[in-house]
Amino acid sequence: MSDDFGVEQVVDKEDLELPVAPVDRIARLEIDDSYRVAMDARIALADILEDYADNVAKAAAVLARHADRRTVKAEDIDTYFELFE
Hints:
Blueprint: H1 20-28, H2 39-66, H3 74-84
């Protein structure tokens, strides 16, 4: 089934920076309690969230550098989303 979505391989849990438990809670926010979230789904979601956060942080750092700052501020994150999302 993962092939249907172009997913090749889920990363190892040990390779993640984000802890899996909070990711599990996020995954469950909008789904019916009768569903469970498998460990490989939690790991895949954590991997995607890490990649997304990395991309946003890198872009925000570029915006901070453009503003001649070495500190990424909330306004840099907001500007990223205004420009690119």
